[in-house]
Amino acid sequence: MERQHFTKTEDFNEAMAKFPHLKAYVDKVSQNEGVPEFHISLDRSMRSLEFPNIIYPIGDPIFIHISRGVERGAIVSNAIMPEMNSDEKDFYNSILDRIIEIAHTAKIPKTMEELREVLISLYNEVVEVSDREEKVNFLNLLGKKIKLTAKQHELILFHLVKDRLGYAKLEPILRDIYIEDISCVGVGNIWIIHKIFGSIKSTVEFEDDLELNKYVVEASERVERPVSEATPIVDAIMGDGSRVNYIYSRKISLGGSSFTIRKFNETPVSVPMLVNWGTWSAEMAGYLWLCLENGASMFVCGETASGKTTTLNAATTFIPIDHKIYSVENTPELTVPHPIWQHLVTRESGEKTDVTMFDLLIASLRSRPDYIIVGEIRGKEASVTFQAMQTGHPVMSTFHAGSVHSMIQRLTGDPINIPMSFMDNLNIVLIQSAVYVNGKVERRVLSITELVKYSDEVKKILTREVFLWDPLKDKHNFRGLYNSHILEKKIAPHIGLKDPREIYEIMFKRAKIIKALCESGIENYFEIVEILSKYRRDGERALPFKV
Questions:
Q1: Would you list the DSSP string of 459-509?
Q2: Helix intervals (H) in 169-298
Q3: Arithmetic mean of pLDDT, 119-147
Q4: Could you give the angle at which helices 150-164 and 86-102 cross, rounded to 10 degrees?
Q5: For the chain, which domains are there?
Q6: CB atoms within 10 A of CB 282
Q7: Per-chain mean pLDDT for the chain
Q8: What is each CA distance from 414 to 9, 164, 304, 424, 451, in whole angstroms?
Q9: pLDDT of 450-468, one tens digit each?
Q10: Does 49 have pLDDT greater than 50?
Q11: Would you call 367 helix, strand, or coil by DSSP?
Q12: Residue 506 to residues 26, 349, 502, 516, 533, Cα–Cα distance (Å)
């Protein structure tokens, strides 16, 4: 399904006047919690709110209320949308049956918008708006058209579109741009990872096995990877690019069928956003800018949910825009801004026709790319990755390891078995982690380490740590001043500097540009790409500010 963009009513009073369900909800919660604050958008400063009471729109007529509730317990995400009563549900089911009966008469839609138009057209063929409220009875349902009031017409159409073209019960969660992950661990409430408020419970819930199983079966069929008793575990890509894993039935999921959705972010996180959040420092960004602009190979390492792919994606903005990029992934997560971007995705189902990451990496080498980006290295594709580096192809990738030492151990041990002497083809390693800062879970790059060279004497890789995060001060310290092997020995000669130490002036100048972007409030990923591209071409005069 194509990603939809929804209209949002941005005035609170106007929204309550327009949507009675919102006003009724606000009136109810205001009696105990006070009137909620209405915000069009959220920002990370709200993370410090001990007792949030915030409503924000996610697309008319749905709103989200973030609150600790009357009991001041855990933070909860409350989905606010119009609901049908029992009579309206009966109308809905009858209308859906009628639509199915005449669906064969409609034209075959080619796009999501055409499908929406066809559904609305069929809906209007089977209903008519009446001035008076009709009861759900045999005579009304027997007629050529089912009579509805204008209010019922609008309400049922909303649910029809939500259920047949949207995500049904999960619509409020999947519309919410502040949600990163969605977890259903069985019958009961959905749990979400909110970009501002962290791990919280949603009021969206599945009440019994019948409802949950029906949802999982229908949702998996829509992504053409149906679950069943024979195939109870399925991975798939949703129409909007989100990744989903379904597990079917209580036979293997004791709490009931379950699923996890990792939401796709249409606009990637940018470098200034990472700096503002404290994940990177501006100096770190200046360092990476120089490295990646000049063909350094880099791995971003860390544990699950440490933000590796986010960092990798943000860093692609430092690769010159005219470079040819080849990316290879098991599941599509990257958004590369370069016009010459070959986006390759594996096809693996256990059949002879499978296309593996190994196959795609071999194919990419034949195409002479300027940069190869590997979504995640797990197995034998690592050998091709290091061969690519040996032949002069810069590579960026993510890898599951909590330290440089652990990374080298895993790459050189079974089953990957990269020769230790090959390891120094990789230039820099970022270690990233989810850590606690002031009681909140934050993502931080813990270190940046340069792989200097392989030592025959000790049979090890000599490394140099150029950045280190100080957890007490929550600050990144640059330890590579006049001590960076990559900057002085590789990049300085490459760009023609007679004195290698001049490279640090360039690095700090770029750090100042990153700081200026942060201070100017310029954060949009694609706007950053454009600014950096103009800077490469025209220098400082192309910047929208003075440095």
A1: TEEEEEEEEEEETTTTEEEE--TTT-HIIIIIIHHHTT-SSGGGHHHHHHH
A2: 171-175, 209-222, 271-277, 282-293
A3: 79
A4: 60
A5: 12-82+169-262 (3.30.450.370), 86-166 (no CATH), 273-540 (3.40.50.300)
A6: 22
A7: 92
A8: 56, 48, 21, 19, 21
A9: 999 999 898 899 999 999 9
A10: yes
A11: coil
A12: 54, 48, 7, 15, 17
The pLDDT > 70 percentage for the chain reads 96
DSSP 3-state of 13 = helix
Q: Is 395 helix (H, G, I), strand (E, B) or coil?
A: strand
Residue with token string 């120089």: 290
Alpha-carbon distance of 174 to 182, in angstroms, equals 9
Task: For residue 456, give both structure tokens.
Answer: 């025959």
Tell which residue, 400, 464, 381, has the closest CA to residue 372. Answer: 381
Beta strands 298-302; 428-437: pairing state: parallel
For residue 339, give Cα distances in angstroms to 137, 320, 372, 529: 60, 11, 15, 12
Enclosing H/E stretch for 189: strand 188-194
Place 347 in a pLDDT band, splitting at 50, 70 and 90: confident
- Torsion angle (degrees, nearest 10) of CA 364, 367, 370, 374: -10
Q: Are 347 and 360 in contact (CB under 8 A)?
A: no
Q: Is the pLDDT of residue 171 over 80?
A: yes
| Tokens coding 510 | 């770029």
Measured CA to CA in angstroms, residue 458 lies from 420, 454, 455, 461 at distances of 11, 9, 6, 8
Long-range contacts of 498-502 (CB under 8 A, 24+ apart): none
Which tokens belong to 100? Answer: 């199915």
Which three-class secondary structure state does DSSP give residue 214?
A: helix
Measured CA to CA, the distance from residue 73 to residue 71 in angstroms comes to 5
Q: Sign of dihedral through CA atoms 367, 369, 374, 379?
A: positive
DSSP string, 69-110: TTTT-S-EEEEE-----HHHHHHHHHHHHHHHHHGGGSPPP-
Q: Which helix (H) or strand (E) holds 404?
A: helix 404-412
User: How remote is the C-alpha of 244 from its chain's centroid?
Assistant: 12
- Side-chain-facing half-sphere of 407: CA atoms under 13 Å: 29
Distance CA 25, CA 70 (A): 14
Contact 327, 343 (CB under 8 A): yes
Sequence-distant (6+) residues with CB within 8 A of 273 are 314, 523
Q: Is the pLDDT of residue 1 over 60?
A: no
- Report the distance separating Cα 429 and Cα 447, nearest Å: 8
Whole-angstrom distance, CA of residue 163 vs CA of residue 84: 13
Kind plus residue range of the DSSP H or E element containing 364: helix 357-366
Separation between Cα atoms, residue 20 and residue 81, nearest integer Å: 10
Tell me the backbone φ, ψ of residue 297, rounded to 5 degrees: -95, 140
271 Cβ partners below 8 Å, 6+ apart? 280, 285, 314, 315, 317, 318, 514, 517, 528
Strand pairing class (371-374; 325-329): parallel
Residue 3 pLDDT exceeds 60: no
Sequence-ordered list of residues with C-beta below 8 angstroms from that of 38, at least 6 positions apart, any chain: 12, 15, 54, 55, 56
Query: Residue 468 burial (CB < 10 Å; 0-12/13-18/19+)?
Result: middle
